[in-house]
């Protein structure tokens, strides 16, 4: 059955349609291999410094250990501006064929072994005292170690998106792969909260992962982290109670997901020593903070209205902020096509489509993540877009509690 909300303007006959991104999806492996690329560039710069007698190359080479933040905050926003919108939706006739093409799911599976190899490599780099093979005297300096932690955290944060893609699927293997991917950031409860909490309460005041109008990111971050953890635990406690089982039963999906983190972190500590723990902690916090930044921008200020029975209406494309910039689309497996994802949570990433009627962010997620860190700039860019989306009707906006009077005083004239 055709989805009436599909952007028909981009439709082409099924016989002529080709997935132009089919091979580009392999670029999604850049984040989990970025640390290896960084090591190569460090070695190349240090070698060139000796060969060309250009000491400045060795001086700047440690910058490559920050390759994760460079990718997120610099490279991707530039590429989004340069390459612009995606503009391609698959035709309805090919959806089933595309959905069942296993090539696409293998592109996500292969993320996981590279992710694990990268964190093991990082542990080695954090503790090695002789890195002469990279042209480094002794071990890494503190700034390089911290940069490496942020780069590994970037991989873990993007890995949460891979876990998000896998965790929605009905195949048991993919659900377990989702938990394994979340182990690095100790955010295994996301698997429960996102699927059974966020998707039920999205764009309502009750959802900890839906940001409110007037709420800045630094207030949203602890609310979402704590609220999501609490929600995940309560969801599993309720499920197990119905089965007459203890909340501490091994089938508790929050506990067995956390157990994977304990096993991973414990094994790395046993091999490389306790010295890795501060950096493992930094990468975990940065990794799940990236996820929460994306949560912040995906539903900012949007509100599902209630029907005559006092129940929230069904989630529609109007309840998610979309962006269809092709470069971030590729790196985040179409996460930016968030409206279709909420309408069809089990749909695989390659078949997600962009909607004309969904509210659109002015740029890709990568650019908007940076804006979210600076509340005055965020409000200047986004608040008027929320007001425009609701034609200035403040009663339809999800406003941060306690800020109603301030919002009314500032924007009330708009709705008058």
UniProtKB/TrEMBL annotation:
GO terms for biological process: lipid metabolic process. One of its GO terms (cellular component) is plasma membrane. Signal peptide: none annotated. It is found in: Cell inner membrane. It holds the Pfam family FA_desaturase. The keyword Transmembrane applies. The chain crosses the membrane at residues 24-48, 63-83, 103-127, 139-160, 255-274. It is a multi-pass membrane protein. GO terms for molecular function: metal ion binding; monooxygenase activity. This is Alkane 1-monooxygenase.
